[in-house]
Design a protein that fits this description.
With 366 residues, the protein is an alpha/beta fold. It folds into two domains: 111 residues, ATPase, nucleotide binding domain (Nucleotidyltransferase, domain 5), CATH 3.30.420.40; 188 residues, 2-Layer Sandwich (Nucleotidyltransferase, domain 5). The chain is built from 15 helices and twelve strands. It is globular.
Length: 366
């Protein structure tokens, strides 16, 4: 039997806790939605979620130094806090989750920080480096970090299991499609490229985030459009993406529902832009991996929107992607949706960052 691990996933408005037993069975779970980022309401956590042997926290940003799961002490906590300027929307929530759970559990429970950026620490210099002035890059950590690493790492490994393949030499593109969205190209289980960069704003169209835009456009909005930096940042983060294009909240379910209503034209445009960018970037990730053996969909959209999967697969046929329409229509959890006889396999994987966190915690303590 392995260690019982409490996994803690602090989101922008929620706190998700799950206690996994030694065989990864779910012993207890709790979601606080909304969560105000404080320890209020967590005083009886140990009684409600059992007595974990260890705790694993998802931390969005590990910077250039924290590139592996790390035992959490005051020094590491301070280093995580020091990275807040690199992820101002995400890092404070991770820190709040750490402090809230620390306050609710005995002080002798071992705690490990698991970083979303760590999986992408293996990016080759060609993929990680921005073509910026050398003195800027010496002064600041201006590189592509990538995010959603815990999800990509788990999805890659689980997808290989679903098709009965080992990771050795396997070329995989994982599509983490949720409110936030990113792709990852991996070879042999190692990340070689990803769509998010210095911040989680780069890359795909997301629920409320723009994804990649011309940096000259941003400069124009400030210099010529008269917008303040804070207005631009808020617009790119909270009012763009599917929300900005469709006039909905940005939730993919609302966009799909709007197709036949008065906002159908805007909803159709938003989906066309979304799929265009998705297909474009899957092809780029396949190029970075020097080919494609396995395409993986995970996350809320990736798991529950067969129409998005079908639209993407249809336009990726030139890479050898082909799915079975009947399988695709009914699959919402771990499953192979590949068409019979296709060389490139396509699978759906249920997002389980908690399993990846628990695995990393046990590896550290082992």
């Amino acid at each position: 039997m392995g260690l019982a691990v409490l996994t803690v996933n602090a989101g922008s408005s929620t706190l998700k806790l799950r206690l996994l037993g030694g065989d990864d069975q779910v012993l207890a779970e709790q979601t606080m939605d909304p969560w105000d980022g404080t320890a209020a309401g967590l005083g009886a956590l140990e009684g409600r979620l059992g007595a974990p042997d260890a705790v694993g926290h998802r931390v969005v940003h590990g910077g250039v130094d924290l590139v592996a799961p790390t035992l959490l002490d005051d020094e590491v906590l301070a280093r995580i806090e020091g990275l807040t300027p690199l992820a101002p929307l995400h890092q404070p929530r991770s820190l709040a989750g750490i402090r809230a759970v620390r306050a609710a559990l005995p002080q002798d429970v071992t705690t490990v920080a698991c970083f979303d950026t760590a999986f992408h620490a293996t990016l080759p210099p060609a993929a990680a480096t921005y073509a910026l002035p050398a003195n800027w890059r010496r002064r600041w950590p201006l590189r592509r970090f990538g995010f959603h690493g815990l999800s990509h790492q788990y999805a890659c490994r689980r997808a290989a299991e679903l098709i009965g393949r080992g990771l050795n030499g396997l070329r995989v593109v994982t599509c983490h499609l949720g409110a936030g969205a990113s792709l990852c190209a991996s070879v042999g289980g190692r990340s070689v490229d990803t769509t998010m960069g210095f911040t989680p704003l780069e890359g795909l169209v997301m629920a409320t985030r723009s994804g990649s835009v011309d940096p000259g456009l941003v400069l124009w909005l400030v210099a010529e459009g008269g917008l303040e930096v804070e207005e631009v940042a808020d617009g790119l983060e909270r009012s763009s993406g599917l929300a900005g294009l469709s006039g909905t909240s940005g939730d993919m379910r609302e966009v799909m529902a709007a197709l036949d209503g008065r906002g159908g034209t805007a909803a159709r445009l938003s989906l066309d832009v979304y799929v265009h960018r998705l297909v474009q970037q899957v092809a780029a990730m396949a190029a970075a991996a020097s080919g494609l053996d396995l395409l993986v969909f995970t996350g809320g959209v990736g798991e529950h929107q067969p129409a998005i999967r079908a639209a993407a697969a249809d336009r990726l046929a030139f890479l050898g992607v082909a799915i079975d329409a009947a399988r695709n229509d009914v699959t919402t959890a771990d499953g192979d949706i590949s068409a019979d006889g296709t060389i490139v396999r396509t699978v759906v994987v249920t997002a389980r960052e908690d399993l990846e966190i628990a695995r990393q915690v046990r590896d550290v303590l082992r």
